[in-house]
Write a structure and sequence with these properties.
The chain is an alpha/beta fold. It has helices spanning 29-39, 59-64, 80-92, 124-134, 155-164, 222-228, 249-257, 270-284, 324-336, 353-361, and strands spanning 2-6, 9-13, 49-53, 72-77, 101-104, 115-119, 143-149, 168-170, 177-182, 197-200, 207-210, 239-243, 262-267, 290-294, 306-311, 316-317, 320-321, 337-348, 365-369, 373-379. A seven-stranded mixed beta sheet has the order 5-4-3-6-7-9-8, with helices on both faces. Strands 14-13-12-15-18-20-19 form a seven-stranded mixed beta sheet, sandwiched between helices. A two-stranded antiparallel ribbon has the order 1-2. A hairpin with a 2-residue loop joins β1 (2-6) and β2.
């Protein structure tokens, strides 16, 4: 655990989940920059209504949270892990859990807003969706400040603010971070949000719905297309998990090919789980048994309880290439599978998943590979 020191005070912060060898701090220079700026906004009144978007570990929320019962701070994120990090860090800093109201990315803000602080997300689509969602709660007096590392703020980022909210300017860079200032133009007519998006899955009658923070919203990505060929069929009553499900397409096809199977979809993204649930119910109605879990990897799935796990893991942690999440998914899968259960994963060839799986399962076979992807299968040994 490290200590963030800003004008609002010193705060002990950690990431969630806690890892023995943590690669990243629980805040960045953009968090420090925006808090320094907010400290200079002396004309904000005591009963200010603050919305914070994409506060990954709670640095902004905790620094601004007080015990004032008139204060209204809301933190909106698409990440269940970000919510858990904030709750953990509130406790560590002896702040009441209700000092900040948590909103997921599909919920509505419950008041007009005096101050909006936005950590710029990796996904431009998510930012666009968020700007559309908050616009009805803004007026000409609302202050809007965005923050991000310089390398993540592009002209396309600023154009979104200008098109949806109003005139946009940026600050000078400081410690490789930059602020975005946006003035609300109440006469601007940005139209309606294009999200969620949908497309027809090729060679099927299936319509796939994708919320803004779901990967590959407009068409089937090439990795998933390659994986779909290797989802097996069975008439047995299996329990199948789509781990890190995104829009749930792997689980959807597994359900089609395994008519007696019970499905579990897991993801830490609220938009992913909502997309997967919509897609599953559209295809199967309420006639098929399925569970949709917003969680950390397989947290909440019992050990030795499932027959098949399908996984297309992320290979980024924040904005850096990392196999940290994949390793966690693989290890938890080896525990969740029954003896003889099967784990099937797709990854880029260069990531070396084969060696990791061989250490965990004792064996691993290549199902198919091409110049870009490899599909691997590991079976939990019956001993």
């Amino acid at each position: 655990m490290e200590t963030l020191t800003v004008p609002q005070g010193s705060f002990h912060l950690c990431r969630y989940p806690l890892r023995h060898h943590q690669q990243f701090r629980a805040w960045d220079a953009a968090d420090e920059y925006i808090l320094q700026h907010v400290n200079k906004l002396h004309d904000l009144h005591d009963q200010q209504s603050i919305l914070i978007l994409n506060d990954s570990c709670g640095a902004l929320s905790i620094a601004l949270a007080t015990t004032d019962s008139n204060q209204n701070i809301q933190m909106m994120s698409d990440s269940w892990l970000a919510h858990q990090a904030l709750l953990t860090n509130l406790k560590k800093n002896n702040k009441p859990i209700n000092a900040v109201k948590l909103l997921d990315s599909l919920q509505s803000v419950d008041s007009s807003l005096d101050l909006v602080l936005i950590k710029i997300p990796k996904s431009l689509a998510l930012l666009e969706d968020q700007l559309y969602r908050i616009r009805p709660h803004l007026d000409s007096q609302t202050r809007i400040v965005g923050a991000g590392m310089v390398k993540h703020i592009h002209r396309s980022t600023l154009k979104l603010f200008e098109r949806i909210i109003g005139v946009t300017k940026t600050s000078l860079a400081k410690k490789k971070a930059r602020l975005i200032y946006c003035d609300v133009n109440s006469t601007l007519k940005p139209g309606v949000s294009p999200y969620p998006k949908q497309y027809r899955l090729e060679n099927t009658s299936i319509t796939v719905v994708n919320h803004a923070n779901v990967f590959s919203q407009d068409s089937l990505d090439i990795g998933t297309r390659f994986f779909l060929k290797h989802i097996s069929s069975s008439s047995q009553a299996l329990k199948i998990v789509d781990l890190g499900c995104g829009n749930g397409l792997l689980g959807l096809i597994a359900a089609q090919r395994n008519p007696q199977a019970e499905l579990i979809f897991t993801d830490e993204s609220y938009m992913a789980i909502s997309s997967a649930q919509t897609n599953f119910r559209t295809l199967f109605g309420d006639h098929r048994k399925a569970e949709f879990m917003i969680t950390n990897c397989l947290k909440g799935v019992a050990e030795n309880s499932v027959d098949l796990i399908l996984n297309n893991p992320p290979f980024h942690l924040q904005n850096a290439v990392s196999d940290t999440i994949a390793r966690q998914m693989f290890a938890e899968s080896s525990k969740a599978l029954k003896k003889g259960g099967i784990f099937v994963v797709i990854g880029n060839r260069h990531l070396g998943y084969h060696a990791i799986l061989k250490r965990l399962f004792g064996q691993c076979e290549v199902v198919e590979s091409n110049h870009k992807f490899v599909v691997l299968q590991a079976i939990k040994q019956v001993i």
